[in-house]
Amino acid sequence: MLKIIFASLLFCASGLADSVPPTIQSVGAFTIYTSQDMKVLAEWYEKFGFDIQFDDKVGVYFGTLKGSTPYIGIHPKPPHARKKSSKSISLVFHVNDYNGYVSKLENQGLKPYKIDPPAFGHFAHYRDPDGNEMTIWGD
Predict the structure, then answer these.
(1) How far apart are the C-alpha atoms of 73 and 121, rounded to whole Å?
(2) Would you say residue 44 has pLDDT above 70?
(3) Which domains does the chain show, CATH number per domain?
(4) Torsion-angle region of 100 (φ positive above 0: left; ψ -120 to 50: alpha; else: beta)
């Protein structure tokens, strides 16, 4: 009898697992194919707040936001890609202390090219050396 009850519970539990639709839970990584020296972009993203490492086994830079996701990868642009890069990435990072983080970036020599009026929070927009947009968002 216990075997029948256990088998019924397993069957019901497996049916429940199938009914939950798959969803994206977070950004895991993003890759930038730089049109210039990778080290230039790696240094910029390090100032922006990423913990950047060089992987000499594969010859690329990678890192995280000081130990958490998302991961960033900085790779040389593939030979078949367009020669000139133009704002191909735009990412927004929510921070817990908007004014503090913007001040930290300014102390690192990174100044926003645009600051939005605080209608839906505070937004400071930056461009990396390849023209990709990174935005800091805070309350």
Answers:
(1) 29
(2) yes
(3) 22-138 (3.10.180.10)
(4) alpha
pLDDT tens digits, residue range 79-137? 766 665 555 677 888 888 889 999 999 999 999 999 988 877 898 999 888 888 888 88
What are the residues whose beta carbons fall under 8 Å from the beta carbon of 39, sequence distance 6 or more?
Answer: 61
Return d(Cα 121, Cα 102) in angstroms, integer. 14
Joined tokens for residue 15: 């049916």
What 8-state DSSP symbol labels residue 134?
A: E
The pair of structure tokens assigned to 98 is: 């908007």
- Compute CA distances 70 → 40, 47, 49, 75, whole Å: 20, 16, 12, 16
Return d(Cα 130, Cα 76) in angstroms, integer. Answer: 12
